[in-house]
Amino acid sequence: MSKKVLVLPGDGIGPEIVAEAVKVLNKVNESFSLGLELEEGLVGGAGYDAAGTPLPAETLEKALAADAILLGAVGGPKWDKLEDRALRPEQGLLGIRKNLELFGNLRPAILYPQLAEASTLKAEVVSGLDILIVRELTGGIYFGKPRGIRTLENGDREGYNTYVYNETEIRRIGRVAFESAMKRNKKLCSVDKANVLEVTVLWREIMEELAPEYPEVELSHMYVDNAAMQLVRAPKQFDVIVTGNMFGDILSDAAAMLTGSIGMLPSASLDKNNKGMYEPCHGSAPDIAGKGIANPLATILSVAMMLRYTFGEGAAADAIEAAVSKVLDQGLRTGDIYSEGMTRVGTAEMGDAVLAAL
Amino acid sequence: MSKKVLVLPGDGIGPEIVAEAVKVLNKVNESFSLGLELEEGLVGGAGYDAAGTPLPAETLEKALAADAILLGAVGGPKWDKLEDRALRPEQGLLGIRKNLELFGNLRPAILYPQLAEASTLKAEVVSGLDILIVRELTGGIYFGKPRGIRTLENGDREGYNTYVYNETEIRRIGRVAFESAMKRNKKLCSVDKANVLEVTVLWREIMEELAPEYPEVELSHMYVDNAAMQLVRAPKQFDVIVTGNMFGDILSDAAAMLTGSIGMLPSASLDKNNKGMYEPCHGSAPDIAGKGIANPLATILSVAMMLRYTFGEGAAADAIEAAVSKVLDQGLRTGDIYSEGMTRVGTAEMGDAVLAAL
Ligand SMILES: CC(C)[C@H](C(=O)O)[C@@H](O)C(=O)O
Ligand SMILES: CC(C)[C@H](C(=O)O)[C@@H](O)C(=O)O
């Protein structure tokens, strides 16, 4: 079996944090004899600068051939003014998701006990928080057609997008969610807006239809506005949340921020065979790029997810997660998670500390 | 000039809380010689039970003839199983919004100093919070066509909705937002998803186009996922937020919950002449309906908004708001905002206390 990993550093802090994650990956590759082969590619603004497109053909080819992809982050002010939206960095990311059919996006929101203070929420509301958001990633309004901006007969312009899901798409993300719930606390909350949007009426119906196949999982439904409220009010009521692409984008960011340490949160985007792209939940942070101060832990933890989900190497994944926990115990902190009394370190120091802890 | 107020108690706790608000309205109507004429109507589940539809023709007629509407809340489990979605209580609400062209939805999220403890967020993050969310209410994906559920050639069903805005719709809500910002701290943040959705590319463009007309207002743009995060991270960075119907639904609920006292938050939905519907931000709370324990303050504060926005009676509005503040100072609390050492009161007692404080 081939075990190819494509590394896409991307833009902003991407190259810095990915460099640390690659150190960690190389180390476990050796010590656990994983037999992984790494290669690099260009994506996002880096792709545009080098090849005139955020998803160069060569990158897409490598991505299709790889078993797993490690992505840093894409985007930055440098490319925000590109008139042709198809050339913007985000399109590289969306293009990989779509072309590789990475429909299953897993976004854990975990509060590390060592970082409890970082949350803007009261300790009792978030202590021990551990939610998994399962977001559909290749459908919904992100990719629905027709879409565009047209001129009406009266001369007015009108913008339009299409929010669309068919039952096959809903069913496959539903299964990912039910199966994730089975491995956790067996509670699944499906988020929709079925009191207003027909597409989510179908969503709710299919989730209900799947439920009997997973009798141990307790399925509930919640409107998206209420879900946004409940995440602020009592986030620990949730175990697994499943929702569409757009709602998932919003809720997973809100959930991540509940922990106060978005620099700590990894994510996985999987296809039906668990081939996947792994990336930190945070963005490319152009304001601190190149300064060597970004937090590499979310990217390092993304490597752990990759080993667990794509390569089935649970022991190696555990080792990385334990090492991260250890450096937190040692009091090492990058600026984003720094608090009084801790030791402030840079990106490379943090990466080296994880290596040492392995 | 006619000064007609239509009172729509609706469902669940609606009748109880509206009764208290009507007491308050009657009192200021007299003491400030406002000359308002009140009448009642049926909407939501109450409309369905009495007339077989959530928006009886008589109610719509009265609504069209009124200058302002005071609504309690609609919905409840009793009507959730209605197969025909057009008959569900929510459709009464959506029908009034649409028929009366109440496109400008103002949703303040204010933290009352007396209730600072109620928030799940740390005091320093939310103390003094005072945000206004301006939500477009008669367009976007809520009303866009085509919409529905169809069967594809392969037998699969597919659900679809259309997210659409034309520039006229965007411009008119934009003006409401800029004008609101002018009356406040002159900061306006427009929330969109312009990196993915064309309809919001147009949204952003029109907001930019309006900016020169309001040179004192500092306009910024934020993606909706980031906005959801920033509301949790540092909500006080915002003054006025303007966004479309769906994003506004989600963000305004999240913002309301930041205060921890959604039972305190009123809202206004205005047409181009400031005719409007006023209602609490919270729902019909069927679980506590009929028990006399619901918090009537959001509905009472909705009356204040009505007097200020539709009738230009700032002094009467101020008086109501001052009275509400006074009862909070007195330590009176309904269950939803109760904390140790305070005096727990029921719906009617709270209403009476506001009357007495007037
Ligand atoms: C960059 C952007 C297109 C992307 C998205 O909206 O999916 C990002 O916000 C994310 O959540 O991965
Ligand atoms: C009841 C529902 C249709 C409504 C909406 O989504 O607009 C409610 O959530 C609101 O925010 O007023």
UniProtKB/TrEMBL annotation, chains A, B:
* InterPro entries to which the protein is assigned, alphabetical: IsoCit/isopropylmalate_DH_CS (IPR019818), IsoPropMal-DH-like_dom (IPR024084), Isopropylmalate_DH (IPR004429)
For the Isopropylmalate dehydrogenase-like domain, which residue ranges apply?
4-354
Record's function text:
Catalyzes the oxidation of 3-carboxy-2-hydroxy-4-methylpentanoate (3-isopropylmalate) to 3-carboxy-4-methyl-2-oxopentanoate. The product decarboxylates to 4-methyl-2 oxopentanoate.
Q: Residues that bind substrate, according to the entry?
A: R97, R107, R135, D225
Q: Which family does it belong to?
A: Belongs to the isocitrate and isopropylmalate dehydrogenases family. LeuB type 1 subfamily.
Could you tell me what reaction this enzyme catalyses?
A: (2R,3S)-3-isopropylmalate + NAD(+) = 4-methyl-2-oxopentanoate + CO2 + NADH
- Indicate whether Ligase appears among the record's keywords: no
Which cofactor(s) does the record list? Mn(2+); Mg(2+)
Q: Which residues form the signal peptide?
A: none
Pathway membership of this protein?
A: Amino-acid biosynthesis; L-leucine biosynthesis; L-leucine from 3-methyl-2-oxobutanoate: step 3/4
Q: Which residues bind Mg(2+)?
A: D225, D249, D253
- SUBUNIT field: Homodimer.
- State where it is primarily located: cytoplasm
**A GO BP term, please?**
L-leucine biosynthetic process
Domain of life, source organism: Bacteria
Give EC number(s), comma-separated: 1.1.1.85
According to its UniProt record, where is this protein located?
Cytoplasm
Which PANTHER family does the record cross-reference, listed alphabetically?
Answer: 3-ISOPROPYLMALATE DEHYDROGENASE (PTHR42979)
List GO terms (cellular component aspect): cytosol
Against SUPFAM superfamilies, the record matches this protein to: Isocitrate/Isopropylmalate dehydrogenase-like
The reply to whether Transmembrane figures as a keyword in the UniProt entry is no
Q: What is this protein called?
A: 3-isopropylmalate dehydrogenase
